[in-house]
Each structure stands twice: as structure tokens, then as C-alpha cells.
Design a protein that fits this description.
By secondary structure, this protein is of the alpha/beta class. Helices cover about 45% and strands about 15% of the residues. The chain is globular and about 65 Å long. The relative contact order is 0.15.
Amino acid sequence: MTAQKSAKISVIIPVKNMAGKIEQCLKAVFAQSLPPHEVIVVDGRSADGTAERAQKFPVKVFYQDYGAAGAARQIGVEHAEGEYLAFTDGDCIPGKDWLKNLVGGFGEGVVGVGGGIQNIGKGLWTRSINLAFATFLGSGRSVQGGASFSDRFVKSISGSNSMYRKSDLLRAGGFDPDLSGADETELNARLLKSGRLRYVRDAAVLHDHSRGLKEFARNMYRYGGWRKECGVWDWPVLPPLLAPLLLLTLLASHWILTAIIGLYLVVVGLHGLYFTIKEKDARYLVTIPVVFILEHLGYTVGFWKEVFRPRKMPKAAGEPPR
């Protein structure tokens, strides 16, 4: 594959209340070895001056009455001039060759290219979350979980690190602005009907979460709900769908349920032991299992909450830059 050096690329960044991180993101975007044609920031009415900080750079700023990131991305799509549209988030820091490696991943039949996410951040809980999320038990080898996988074709690519041809996006109908989350998952499912999605390892971005345990649990609850809402029925929905079967085992024998829970605790405990040895920090023996339990419980509860009490999203609205 030959990198298309003359490619006209628009970078689209949805943001809300990211004043402390947007500048490091934009510095990295404007330092690309393959410079973008334009950079579009879609702000969800931030209350911390995010848009004002973004305007220190030569960007186009659009505003949205925030429904979700998907609505913001779609506003960017509609106003973009580029042939290729690259997406990242305001708390991400792309590598120097990010755009070059993404556009170089296109070939015959490829409708989207994405890279990995290297989660970073300070603090014990943030490090524990990042370590747990990089495992199969934490993310099922999703590209969201890390940037260490080899180049391959995948079922989905991340909204934090992806590129599409604008023509392919428009042909597929673009991002659904009425989804409150998992908009890229739903879009990718539609795009797979007309082509393939490629993962390129060297097109990685750093994702500065700096998240605590409470925020992580809340996010996993949201992710579970979003996964149900987007309507893509593949293997990530299998664990929450199987969860009610655990309760049904009580009708047969409480020993079965006890055995299953016991096995689960052994598995997460072994992960904690592994990272305790690898990182030479005994605290992971406790924190890693806690992270797994909160992740799986939050995701499952969020999924089933969306089944019985689906959320209602406001219609997305946007306005031109000022």
C-alpha cells in the first residue's frame, strides 16, 4: 500500500469540557508528517472555555446542542472539505505519523482504517483500569483496549482513531446523530456491507483518560446501555445476555451459581496476581479484580437498563462557526 501523500484530509474532533486537554491534542494534530487540509472542532457548549482554547489554533469551530459525540461527528462530516475524514477525541494525542499511516492503510475494498488506543494517565486506579482494559477479559482484544495488535481486518474501529473517505460515509448515511453512544460501532456495521475495515498498528494515539474508579464505573454503565441502543448484535452483547442465566441457576441449585461466581473470582484474582508480579506492585492484587468486577457489572446493568427503560435522545442541532 502506498501512502497517498497528496490526500486532502479533514480532521474532526468532537469535544465537551476538555479545556485542560484540547491544546495538547491540537499540537499533535498540527505537527503531523502529513499535514491535514483542515481541522474541525465541534464543541458541545462547553462550560470551561474549551472552544476558546481550540481557537488559539487555525481550526474551524462549530457548536452543537450536545446530543452525543456521534451528532458532533456528523456535523463535522457535513462541513468537511476533505476527501478523507479522520476522527479523534479531544483527550487524545496522535503520533507524528498518525494521518500518514491511516491514509496509507486504504486499498481495494477498504472503507475505513483505524489504529490502536494506548491508554495513559496517572494514579493507581487509572493505571489499574488501563492494565485491565488491555486484556482479553477487559476488552476482548478490542482496538479500544490497546495498540499492540498486529495489522488486520476488523469488525469495528474506534471513533477516537479512525479515517474514512467522505464519499463512503455519505453513501452509508453517516453517523446517526440520535444515538447517545456507540455511534461508530453502528456506522461500522453499515460500512461492512460495502467493504472492509482495516486496523493499522502504527496509527496509534495516546488516550489521556486520567479517570478514577467512580468515573470508570459510570462510563461502563453508559457503554452497556449504548451497546444495546446501537442495535449491533455481535459477541460483545453475549455476556450481558447470558447474565440472566446465572439467576436461573438458582432454580436448579445454588451450588451451580456459587461455583460459577467462584470460578470468575479465581480468574480475576489470577489477573491481579499476574500484574502484581509484572508491575512489582502488590496493590494490583486488589485493584485489578475490583476494576474487572465494576466493569462487567456496570456494563451488564447498563445494557439491561436500556432494554427495559430506553433513553430518549434530543434531536441534534448545530450552527456554523463564529
